[in-house]
Amino acid sequence: MRLLVKKETAIFLGLFIANLVVAILASFVLPEKFFYDAQTIVFHKFSEEGISGSYPFSSFFYTITGLKYLPYAIVALIQYPIIIYILYKIGIPTNFHKINVKNLLVYSGFFMIAIFISMPSKEFITFIYVSILPFVFYSDKIPSKYKVTLSLMIIAFFGLFFRPYFLLIPIIAIGMYGITLIDFKNKALSSIFYGLLLAIFISLSVGVIKGKHLSEGSRDLVNRERMNSKDANSIIVSPIKTDTWYGETVGIVYGFFAVNIPLEGFKHVFSPQIIVFIIWQILLFYILFVRFSICLADRKQYRYLLWTLLILFSYFIVQGIFEPDLGTATRHKIGIFPLIYYALYYEYFRKEF
């Protein structure tokens, strides 16, 4: 009996096999800067400060699993199939074999996953954790009225024990949702605009309390230490100092565009890998924005897509505060790729309730 494999499944498996090879070989060909985080995780002593926080928990995770003791190529051989299996369980859209911009973005995503999760990585943990959300939206056992609240709580909990800036995502997402209920001419654009304003307000409030604004005490602090290093060619530097309220405002807005619509990044014309990342992020942002506009016109049909996009755009806004460079901006988007994947193919995964 002849075994028939659907075209979309064949493409999915083909991408998995090809990029599994990429993931395994990555540690032999990538420059040293790609492994800074991995080295920090491997050599970090989590027992000195507990396991709360991204580096302590990552070190704890890779210690108890034994992965920190393995060559990176073996780590990739273990991690990459797990990641792709999660996407497989979310689902393969029936048009996955067709060549279009959306599918090309996801095909590229398979490759970038292979690059960024081919070693001990905080993004591997983030990916697994964030993938819970699509399955919450899928679940028949969770009452519909609780799904959004539960999803926001899941995100907030991740901020408490792993990445503190995730705590801002539910706050900004709820604020953006409130804006979508107001009769603006362009609700999608207005929602993102006021989401940015909310992020600025939160940062300035933290500045009043702690003496340093959020981007001033995170992105700018990191970049000051490596301003003249050989790996500083793609760092994100605000056009003005962020130690004033107006400087922080400019810094957050500039950072938002720098990590999501990084047109200025095209100056790196002699760094093709940066140009590829830039094009990927611009196209991704545009497609998600268009989908955001569409789902606002029919909240009932797209209710979980709406909240998925609110979470994603809130994350993009938060990236504008904390991301130090274009490379980490792309790396961290790979960590939330399950939500991106779910949002791009929502029509194929949506259930009627």
Category by helix and strand content? mainly alpha
Q: What is the rounded Rg?
A: 20 Å
- Main sheet? none
Percent range of helical residues: 55-70%
Query: How far is the N terminus from the C terminus?
Result: 38 Å
Q: What is the N-to-C succession of helices and strands?
A: HHHHHHHHHHHHHHHHH
Beta-strand proportion: under 5%
Spans with pLDDT under 50 lasting ≥5 residues? none
Number of helices: 17
- Give the overall silhouette: globular
Mean pLDDT: 88
The overall strand count is: 0
Quick overview:
This protein is an all-alpha fold. It is built from 17 helices and no strands.
Attribute tags:
single chain, 353 residues, mainly alpha
Structure overview:
Helices cover 67% and strands 0% of the residues. The chain is an all-alpha fold and 353 residues long. The protein contains 17 helices and no strands.
Topology summary:
Blueprint (H helix, E strand, L loop, with lengths): L6 H23 L6 H8 L10 H11 L7 H19 L10 H16 L5 H9 L1 H7 L5 H18 L6 H13 L6 H24 L8 H7 L19 H16 L11 H25 L6 H20 L3 H10 L1 H8 L1 H4 L4
Helix pairs in contact: 1-4, 1-5, 2-3, 5-13, 6-15, 7-8, 9-10, 9-14, 10-12, 10-14, 12-14, 13-14, 14-16
